[in-house]
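Side project, low priority. Logging it here so it doesn't get lost.
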Amino acid sequence: MRVEDLLKRARELWPGKMTDQEVAIAMGVVYGEICRYVRDRSEGRKVDDAEIKKELGNMLFSTIRWCDDMGLAPEECIKLAVEAQEKYVRKKLGAKTFSR
């Protein structure tokens, strides 16, 4: 699916927009669930991989909507993140070319 398709689907599910504070709180809740999964796994407890898949998917899908809620274009946010990660990798690993 394309980002624009995901945003359309997200708006079908969640037609209202969240405030910046609500976005930050919701993001923290999802992140907390991911952290609990990782902690439990690292401490040897049995975990359900379907749960972490669901929460990671929730973070991805919801973040597209949250960008829009905050008046930001999700595609632009993704583009800037890719550029920042490329810059970070080049700095850490030396000159490197990236295929596009």
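Brief comment: The longest helix spans residues 20-42.
Revisit when time allows.
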